[in-house]
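Table 4 source record.
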Amino acid sequence: MSRSFRGRPELPEDSESRQESSPELAEPESDNWDTRLPSARQKSSEAQRNSAYQVDIGKRLVAALIDITTGYFLGLAINCVPFINTYFNAQVVMILYLICRDALFNGRGVGKNLMGLQVVNQATGQAASFPQSIKRNIVLYGPGLALYIFSPLLALIPIDNVREFLGNALQAVGGLYSFAVIPYEAYRVYSRTDGRRWGDELAGTEIVLADMDFSNPTSR
């Protein structure tokens, strides 16, 4: 059998055609080989996403209860501060904390931090930012914040009956919204393998396992 100048045996014409037609026998191009392998960053992001499957629902529930308790006592503390309590009552402080909490302590808040959880950007794996925390939690606590914002505006209405009707209507709409959305979000957390609720899809976030860390109060 004759050999080429590179020292490789020459294949018969029919063998070469079979090699070109068969992807298993074709020699991979070295230039494109690195694109077929996932990069280290892709592996890291994939590992972080997979860790979301391991999050225990019980941990998330306990973390939520801790955050609600933290927001409640924070509201009571703010309510004792002169001048500030004129503009922010305990209920509003509690709602604002619950909306922004996932951006504290690098996406952990207080409850998730104690339970070894963290809210991260699903695309990058980095800690959730303040805008993401607001988007994630406004789904749950938006009605309470809306009541606080629009209630002073209702006081400007001079007709008592109209003012009372609009106030009751606003509270009824907020109550119906919460009655529908909160169970739906809880069902998504329970039924989905990744545990992502509607707020997570809106903010592009997910919950993963993480070590407790109170060293950095904010994410940014």
